[in-house]
Amino acid sequence: DAKTTQPNSMESNEEEPVHLPCNHSTISGTDYIHWYRQLPSQGPEYVIHGLTSNVNNRMASLAIAEDRKSSTLILHRATLRDAAVYYCILRESTTSGTYKYIFGTGTRLKVLA
Amino acid sequence: DTEVTQTPKHLVMGMTNKKSLKCEQHMGHRAMYWYKQKAKKPPELMFVYSYEKLSINESVPSRFSPECPNSSLLNLHLHALQPEDSALYLCASSQDGDRGQETQYFGPGTRLLVL
Fold it and tell me: What's the helix, strand, coil split of chain B in %, to 5?
């Protein structure tokens, strides 16, 4: 299984941009990069995903390095509600034809008022 | 409706008990997943069902027995668990599990305590 590595924790001021990095040096060419976040006492919630190109949606942006060995989740203006654990995930194919998520260790984001 | 529901929310059981966790979705998804999450750790995949057939078993001990009676329902039967099995059990679903870019929808989880 490919692995992802993330910083354990990060802090940001409210209304400031946040850049959450992820390294996935053993990623294969067909693995999608997904980001989820998990608020306390909740299940993980989808944020964004991509394969090679940078992606934007209403929640965040995803910047993927040209060699795909790293990616960065960008929250453009952090709010207190963005405080959560952010997981960088590789979606890998398996021999059974089904895909599975390989979760990174997660980054706990603290947003300061 | 993009909701995955799980019952019960909390469960306390002894090591000799038999209990079941239930997961339901009505999004027409054909792939369903069980994950185990220990405190301050990421979720770990346990089982994947695709079109009601067991597709992946991540070498989970036999005291955990999954069941997918139909495309909307997923159960996890528990028997003779150990205290180290105490964790948050998460259920998820996705369109059909066969496309790399599709996303998973997670339920809120069942918090299990084994005494």
Answer: 5, 55, 40
Q: Give the pLDDT confidence score for residue A1 in this predicted structure.
A: 61
CB contact under 8 A, B90 and A96: no
The verdict on a CB contact (< 8 Å) between A46 and B108 is no
For residue B85, what is the DSSP state?
Answer: G
Nearest CA-CA distance, residue B35 and chain A, Å: 10
Query: Which one, of B84, B85, B64, B87, lies nearest residue B76 by Cα?
Result: B64
Local confidence band at B33 (pLDDT 50, 70, 90 cut-offs): very high
- Rounded to an integer, the average pLDDT of A72-85 is 96
- Mapping DSSP onto H, E and C, the string for chain A reads CCCCECCCEEEEECCCCEEEEEECCCCCCCCEEEEEEECCCCCCEEEEEECCCCEECCCCEEEECCCCCEEEEEECCCCHHHCEEEEEEEEEECCCCCEEEEECCCEEEEEEC
Determine, for residues A98 and B50 on separate chains, whether the beta-carbon distance falls below 8 Å.
yes
Of B50, B97, B100, the CB nearest to A30: B100
